[in-house]
């Protein structure tokens, strides 16, 4: 059907060919070119590209892994900071409690010691007062006795011998004491 | 002819089939008796030269382009990766999956870029004819595709591939009288024939159209002249438009050839029904 030239094929001065029938060299060169190109793509180009793709995939995977590792590290660090912070807080609270307890104890101690001191001072004072009272009482007793004797000598006008006067003073004082007791 | 109307002696040069069979100028010997005439076995003519040029261009681009590839691609490497990635991910892995796809990737990549390069020579100045517009390349590639899908089927379903493709299960047996011849013709006869003719005729006709437009433009401008120059402007515009269209055809036919081969392989691998 296509053996006739489209227009003026005889101009070319060749026997016209059916374009559907291949010439032997056409088939041979087409095959040679195909085989060469197939070998080039199969053995050279595609393995190189595949190697590159593998490398790239590994790089991307490595990058993702690295990022994951970094994230895990950051999370671990955060956790450790948080625990440390909590520990520090607990420690601070403990120290505060301790300090408060210490303060209370010290205060109680001081109070107790002050009370003791005060009691001791009070007791001492009492003792001294008592002793002084005693001293005053005994000196008063002798002085009052001699005063009274002197007075009575003057009143009576004569001196009494010592033995008598002593007896009178004793009696007088006993009376006094008795009166004091009765009152 | 129109040329006779002009005073210039140069006639209109219509496109002719002879353009697809230029003179063999190298390796005229040895010859072989072929379809009733003596033909050189290793003859080189203009078309063969163009094909070898296209093949050299592919080898140069891809071997040099993939020589020092970096993880972060340069601009040139990106383009090469884009092309190879288009065939790998867009055609082969998409249809066959990665496991089966890896086996057939070299064949389909070769088919795609060989067809593309030899198609594109149709619009490259001074080459001006597609290497695929002569039947050799389309025929050889169709045979490769044919062998590839039969190999895939036989390897995957040893002994059952032809039975599966010719006697699809789930069909009542009397229908096999009709179904089996149809399946045979469509699978084992029409597939290579349509692959060959679709590619070859697209580029063949594309070349004839471009020659027609530019020869007419030349004729109108330089032989007819005068009023006919206006026609020349029209034919030149058409020639330009069809040149752009031929780029589309070149890419599309390469894609169609590659994807059909992949689909045939996929069907052969999946033949379970």
Notes on the protein architecture:
The complex is a heterodimer of chains A (183) and B (273). Chain A is mainly alpha-helical and 183 residues long. Chain A has one domain. Helix content of chain A is 84%, strand content 0%. Chain A starts with 23 loop residues before the first helix and ends with a helix. Chain B is mainly α. Chain B has six helices and two strands, in the order E-E-H-H-H-H-H-H. Chain B has a two-stranded antiparallel ribbon with strand order 1-2. In chain B, helix 2 (75-120) packs across helix 6 (229-270). At the A-B interface, helix 1 of A face strand 2, helix 1, helix 2, helix 3 and helix 5 of B. Chain A: Residues 64-135 form a coiled coil. Chain A: It is a single-pass membrane protein. Chain A: InterPro entries: ATP_synth_B-like_membr_sf (IPR028987), ATP_synth_b/b'su_bac/chlpt (IPR002146), ATP_synth_F0_bsu_bac (IPR005864), ATP_synthase_B_chain (IPR050059). Chain A: Its main location: membrane.
């Amino acid at each position: 059907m296509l053996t006739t030239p489209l227009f003026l094929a005889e101009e070319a001065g060749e026997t016209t060919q059916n374009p559907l029938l291949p010439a032997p060299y056409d088939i041979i060169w087409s095959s040679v070119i195909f085989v060469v190109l197939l070998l080039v793509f199969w053995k050279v180009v595609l393995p190189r590209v595949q190697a590159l793709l593998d490398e790239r995939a590994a790089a991307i995977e490595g990058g993702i892994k690295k990022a994951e590792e970094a994230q895990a590290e950051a999370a671990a660090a955060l956790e450790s900071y948080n625990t440390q912070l909590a520990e520090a807080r607990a420690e601070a609270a403990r120290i505060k409690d301790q300090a408060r307890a210490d303060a209370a104890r010290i205060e109680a101690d001081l109070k107790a010691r002050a009370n003791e001191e005060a009691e001791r001072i009070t007791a001492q004072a009492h003792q001294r007062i008592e002793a002084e009272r005693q001293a005053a009482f005994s000196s008063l007793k002798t002085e009052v006795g001699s005063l009274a004797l002197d007075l009575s000598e003057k009143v009576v006008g004569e001196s009494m011998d010592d033995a008598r006067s002593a007896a009178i003073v004793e009696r007088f004082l006993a009376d006094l004491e008795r009166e004091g007791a009765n009152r | 002819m129109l040329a006779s109307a002009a005073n210039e002696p140069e006639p209109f040069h219509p496109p002719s089939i002879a353009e697809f069979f230029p003179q063999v100028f190298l390796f005229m010997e040895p010859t072989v008796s072929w379809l009733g005439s003596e033909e050189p076995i290793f003859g080189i003519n203009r078309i063969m030269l163009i094909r070898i040029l296209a093949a050299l261009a592919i080898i140069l681009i891809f071997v040099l382009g993939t020589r020092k590839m970096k993880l972060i691609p340069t601009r040139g490497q990106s383009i090469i990766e884009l092309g190879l990635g288009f065939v790998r991910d867009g055609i082969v892995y998409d249809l066959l999956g990665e496991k089966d796809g890896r086996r057939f990737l070299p064949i389909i990549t070769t088919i795609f870029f060989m067809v593309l390069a030899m198609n594109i020579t149709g619009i490259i100045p001074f080459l001006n004819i597609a290497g695929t517009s002569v039947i050799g390349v389309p025929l050889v590639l169709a045979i490769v595709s044919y062998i590839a899908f039969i190999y895939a089927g036989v390897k995957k379903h040893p002994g059952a591939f032809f039975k599966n493709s010719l006697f699809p299960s789930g069909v009542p047996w009397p229908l096999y009288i009709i179904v089996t011849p149809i399946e045979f013709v469509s699978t084992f006869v029409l597939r290579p024939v349509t692959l060959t003719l679709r590619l070859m005729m697209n580029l063949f006709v594309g070349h004839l159209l471009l020659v027609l437009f530019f020869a007419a433009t030349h004729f109108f401008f330089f032989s007819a002249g005068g009023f006919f120059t206006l026609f020349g402007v029209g034919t030149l515009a058409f020639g330009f438009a069809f040149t752009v269209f031929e780029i589309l055809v070149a890419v599309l036919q390469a894609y169609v050839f590659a994807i059909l081969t992949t689909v045939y392989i996929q069907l052969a691998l999946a033949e379970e029904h």
